[in-house]
Amino acid sequence: MTGSTRAIAVVGAGPRGVGLLERIAANVPELYDGRLVVHLVDPFPPGPGRVWRFAQSPLLRMNSMPEDVTMFTDDTVRCAGPIRPGPTLAEWVAAVREGELAAEVDPALLDELRSMTATTFPTRRLHSAYLDWFFTRVLDTLSDGVEVRVHAAAAVDITGPEDGPQSVWLSGRAEPVLADVVVLTVGHLGAGPTPEEAGLGEHAAAHGLRYLPPAYTADLDLSALAPAEPVLLRGFGLAFVDLAVLLTEGRGGRFTAGPDGALTYHPSGAEPVLHVGSRRGVPYHAKPAYPLQGDPVPLPRFFGPPEVSALLARPGRLDLRADVWPLMAKEIGWGYYHELFTAHPHRTRMGLTEFAERYAGLDWGVDELASLVERAVPATEDRLDLSALDRPLRGLRFTDRAALTTHVCRYVEADLARRENPAFSADLGAFLTLLSVFGQLAQLVGAGKLTPQSQVDDVDGWWFGFFSFYASGPPGHRLRELLALVRAGVVRPVGPDMWVRAEHGRFTAGSPSVPGVVEATTLVEARLPTPSVRRSTDPLVRVLHERGELLEEVLRDRDGTGERTTGRITTTAAGGLVDASGRAHPRRFALGPHTSSRSPGAFTRPRTNAVGFRQNDAVARDILALLGAAVEAHSTL
């Protein structure tokens, strides 16, 4: 060991930040022979961070099963650093329960710990305990000479030259944290209002109404929403689910199950009336409650490295819908039909080998492919229709709101029937293939191969929305609760393509698919804010942007036209933080879903060669190589 000491500051100590810490610790023995201090800067506990902190409602749950969540690399992860395997959330729960792992678990979690299985959906507080244990595990495995210091404060500024130490200034502290390298792992950024949102807020202030802009649900103060008050919720995804939980069961209501398993909601009387709508007009699909029933699908097949390389080699930029989606859709179809043919061959009229050979030779969307599917798959309900899945209420008109409500309830019941019945495991085949497609698409995005319009509207807009709608929905029991809330009159659907207006001293909403309007005294945006560096509420991001040391990502066509902003923090492919001049700061990095690297914000599924693990490992190795070179240069002076 050289005796020199270098320091890294990681701003943001949630799962991404401590995941990076684990990769730094794993790579130190190979790449760095000196003393190292890693500063973790976050006002929230290291490991869980803000989103997964223990201090939130015990009613809020994850939308992933424990067997599908891990913080550890495995042998599928293609990275240069060492693989250090560890338990998934499910394995951790079992090991702690059996006394095989020592972990401090709050007494309030013991009943859940005892009853949890690999396929039930845990509370966020139980997951918080897993993340806390993971952080402790990383600390216990640090090499000699590596020290971690936790700073329970918010970073408000970073100063320092490109060729020298960086000063990370903290709220309420007179002295900065000094580091040779700084990494921002800030997760989802809060954002100030858009012009539309600002107008809605002004209308609310002028007329004694309430407007809650996009935000993380657990951070919202919902106490002002009065019993029986009409409330508009714009958004039918996971944020809506959380809001519904907090405003019903969280206010003393309860569910009971009948002999047939159907739930009945018993109001406490403290609930507002929730009118909910969205572009699709229906909630996200329930998470599948079964494993694959057939043979594992070999992926990638039609949208893998050869196809991505061919797309990258094309001259000019690509349009997602025209150039890439046909390959993506064909891959998703392959995952779906492979599971159908191997798990449920009695529902097909053709062997898999023959079907696969014919399927391989046809382009997605052509009539010949549709004819092949009709011949091979006799039941309409067994055929994959991605367009109908994307917009299930498209073209429908309802005579009144009661007819709409009946239709939405039947839609949800049908979705639950599929997602809880392994006879429809082909849906899971498509679900898992979506994950593979997501990873392949990331290479085209990272290379800047798509047109600005297609990147913003098709990828960041439509594709991410469809992915979340189909693959990132709530556990099935939340949709059964939703049905009970609708039957109780507490939740009332507004319809697809929901519009909202501020007029006549009220908020009004409606849908082109159903006559009439809904009036309300409160409007809640049931979603997270879209990325926006310019409107960021994070003081660190804001001050760096104001000085030109952090840049909002702007995409331009190669001829200088077609400019679009994504709102994300601009980084290089290697995670380097780019300034307003277009240069990457050699000592500042950024990782996370709101950077231009677009890493997934969701948790990592085991054995998927996860993008987040690969990014963390690559950045950790780059930083350690940089520090090692600096130590060597210093020692030769």
TrEMBL record:
All copies of domain FAD-dependent urate hydroxylase HpyO/Asp monooxygenase CreE-like FAD/NAD(P)-binding, residue ranges: 9-188
Domain of life: Bacteria
Region (Disordered): 575-609
InterPro entries cross-referenced by the UniProt entry: HpyO/CreE_NAD-binding, L-asp_N-monooxygenase_NS-form
Family annotation (PANTHER family): BLR0577 PROTEIN
Name by which UniProt lists this protein: Adenylate cyclase
